[in-house]
Design goal:
The chain has 606 residues and is of the alpha/beta class. The chain contains 21 helices and 21 strands. It has a domain of 166 residues: Alpha-Beta Complex (DHBP synthase), CATH 3.90.870. It is globular.
Length: 606
């Protein structure tokens, strides 16, 4: 039995396909359309899922949609009526899409599939809970879902046992930890629903000087993690902005304009917000533990992508084990919807792996390209390349990394979720003091303050980081071990903000953030044998089982999906080599890429 899950019309549209409870394929629409965070109906992602399974729409037993549009429309109508006439402009802007598409999901799905397939719906936070629990390695667990807003719920918790998910409590709109974070994202000059992770990365450069102001004026946080927000400071219920003039007065001036210079205020706001968010997450998990009595916790929803907060939950929270859905945002709702169809609606029995592994296959669920397909593309486009044997590939690439080359790494099935996990990655030497700056400014064309993540062999993680568990999906932050840190001098300690950036803080300077932390991906042979072989080869040559891993894209574009996108990204940047399948492409051997000259203006920083 095939069940297709769909999420769309907010951000990060996606499709996922499940066969008899097993995840066959999942992908975000943006990877195919090349529109970052594409929210449109996921035609291309659906087509990929069906191709991957070798089926047509006729073979589907059910389609499951990830939320209930009528309930969401009810919330929008009630919010407008409660704030009218103030919200008339935002309401009139939203209405056409609702009347044209969002209220006509059944006919839209039938039209796009060409078949009248039975359609089921989950509530938004049910789909998040299902995406967190059903692929997890636990037979029973508590779940906590936190995001901006679904229909009404913004936070929910409960239990998963066997094939049954039970929601035990919810917080409702407009009180939302995700929307609080988005409000500060907007105010610090970044893009909402896209750049919240930048605020998290900026936080260690600041001081928590605004924490008390946030508690005094913006959020009343209770001991059980419940809270109410003071809506006098926010504009998202009725306006076209996240915050209003009172919010600006509270923090000493208007919101930062995008792309303008970051000041100490933005850094301090980011740090203060992050501390409040982490405290709310900790209080929620303590309450959930008390209410459920479970030892395992699973997380989903956009707030679950806050890997700094997740790290604190693991270290300081009451749960023994934590598993986080790698596609925790709305894209993962498609996967949760499909799994809820199989387990929640059809009540099929669920079995967890006896070896403690999850059922998401490393989240390598997207398209794969054979050596024959890659070579055909290279030859058709007269691209110079060198082919090596599968046995040579890891050693040759490890040599390139060890000599401080930056590598585009395109291998196997594309990742599902926002993180590159060694299939569509840009990789480099974590020991290099200059690698963070090179990658940020010459490869990614992004803000210099943003840190890079380490990929480390699972068997060596505790030798380098304060962590003794797996983190395959890059969703946990931990400290670099004390003995690997470089102590700051008195003069360095007195530096503020971005002045801290170019100081080496450990023997892995390219992946050590200014607070001595790192967002860790552990790599196991079971999940990704080739990537494990590569890092193992690098370790044999250098004594270091850690490399840099960042997503294979540039600022403003989705992660690459196909060979042609990998080559174009490689040529547009100052990467040194592209390794696709068993083919090694050297930049110095390539002809100049001929393309639209506006590309660099659009995506590069000044």
């Amino acid at each position: 039995m095939y069940i297709l899950g769909i999420s769309c019309f907010y951000h990060d549209s996606a499709a996922a396909l499940v066969k008899d409870g097993k995840i066959i394929a999942a992908a975000q629409e943006e990877r195919f359309t090349r529109k970052r965070h594409d929210f449109n109906f996921p035609k291309e992602a659906i087509a990929f899922c069906l191709r991957e399974a070798g089926i047509t729409a006729k073979d589907l037993s059910y389609v499951v949609f990830y939320d209930k549009p009528l309930l969401k429309f009810e919330r929008i109508m009630e919010t407008y009526l409660a704030t009218a006439p103030r919200g008339i402009q935002s309401f009139l802007m939203a209405l056409p899409l609702w009347l044209k598409e969002k209220l006509w999901i059944p006919s839209l799905i039938t039209e796009n599939l060409g078949e009248n397939i039975p359609l089921l719906y989950t509530e938004h936070h049910e789909s998040h809970a299902a995406s967190a629990f059903y692929p997890s390695p636990y037979d029973h667990a508590a779940f906590l879902t936190m995001d901006g807003v679904g229909e009404w719920a913004t936070t929910s918790f409960g239990t998963g046992v066997g094939n049954t998910i039970t929601i035990q409590g919810e917080l409702n709109f407009p009180h939302s930890l995700g929307l609080l974070y988005s409000a500060f994202t907007y105010f610090t000059g970044f893009k909402v629903n896209s750049a919240e992770y930048k605020v998290m990365g900026l936080a260690p450069y600041g001081e928590p000087r605004y924490v008390q102001q946030i508690y005094d004026h913006l959020i009343d946080l209770k001991e059980d993690g419940s809270f109410r927000m003071n809506m006098e400071y926010f504009d998202y219920c009725s306006g076209l902005r996240m915050t209003n003039e009172r919010f600006a007065d509270l923090f000493g001036g208007p919101a930062r304009q995008g792309e303008s210079r970051l000041t100490q205020r933005e850094m301090d706001l980011a740090r203060s917000l992050q501390e409040v968010t982490e405290e709310a997450m900790l209080r929620m998990t303590r309450h959930v533990h008390k209410q459920t009595g479970e030892k395992n916790l699973v997380l989903a929803g956009g707030v679950a992508l806050n890997c700094v907060g997740n790290g604190r939950l693991l270290r300081e929270g009451p749960f023994e084990n934590i598993w986080i859905q790698p596609a925790a945002g709305d894209a993962g709702g498609a996967l949760g919807a499909a799994l809820f169809g199989w387990y929640g609606y059809l009540r099929n029995e669920r079995h967890v792996s006896p070896d403690g592994r999850d059922a998401q296959f490393g989240s390598y669920l997207g398209p794969v390209y054979s050596d024959e397909e890659i070579e055909h593309y290279l030859q058709m486009n007269e691209i110079e390349y060198r082919k090596v044997s599968p046995e040579e590939l890891a050693d040759v690439t490890a040599d390139l990394i060890a000599t401080e080359n930056v590598i585009g790494w395109f291998q196997g099935r594309m990742e599902f979720g926002p993180r590159a996990l060694g299939a569509r990655s840009i990789i480099g030497d974590a020991r290099s003091p200059k690698m963070q700056s090179i990658m940020n400014l010459k490869i990614k064309y992004r803000e210099s303050f943003r840190p890079f993540a380490p990929s480390v062999l699972l068997e060596n993680v505790s030798d380098y980081f304060d962590m003794n568990c797996s983190s395959p999906y890059m969703l946990l932050v931990a400290g670099v071990k004390e003995e690997r840190r470089i102590a700051m001098t008195a003069d360095q300690d007195r530096l503020f903000g971005i002045e801290k950036l170019n100081i080496s803080r450990s023997d892995l300077p390219a992946v050590t953030h200014v607070d001595y932390s790192a967002r860790i991906q552990t790599v196991s042979r079971e999940d990704n044998p080739l990537y494990h072989d590569l890092i193992s080869a690098f370790a044999r040559k250098t004594g270091c089982p850690v490399i840099i891993n960042t997503s294979f894209n540039v600022r403003g574009e989705p992660i690459v999906c196909r060979p042609e996108e990998a080559y174009k990204c490689f040529m547009r940047t100052e990467m040194d080599y592209l390794v696709m399948g068993n083919f090694i492409i050297a930049k110095k051997a390539q002809k100049q890429l001929v393309e639209d000259s506006n590309w660099r203006k659009e995506f590069q920083l000044d």
